[in-house]
Amino acid sequence: MSYPVAPDLEFAPYGPLHFAYQSFDDGQVETANIVDITNANSRIGLYLRAPERSDGLSFDLESGLGFRPSLKTSPKNTP
Question: What is the pLDDT of residues 13-40, one digit of tens each?
């Protein structure tokens, strides 16, 4: 999905978000945290480009989000 910003420019956000809410409860202590799925961290990006019908430059800005990997949490490891 893209959004027009100017007559010859559009903005398009994208990104795979692989985070989850993970909690443990052993009957005595409950811990919880937001975690990334271990196999792939979450990323978010922004395209700034000319519409496909015209020529021009395009820019792509991407950043990874640094949530704790799910593999590094357990009932014994308090996040």
Answer: 888 888 888 888 888 888 888 888 767 7
Residue found by looking up tokens 């700034």 in the block:
48
Residue 10 CB burial class (10 angstroms; 0-12, 13-18, ≥19): middle
Q: Sign of the C-alpha dihedral, residues 68, 70, 73, 75?
A: positive
Cα 43 to Cα 24: distance, rounded to the nearest angstrom: 26
The structural domains of the chain, with segments of one domain joined by +, span: 3-72
**3-class DSSP state for residue 54?**
coil
List the structure tokens of 1.
């999905």
Sign, CA torsion 64/66/72/75: negative
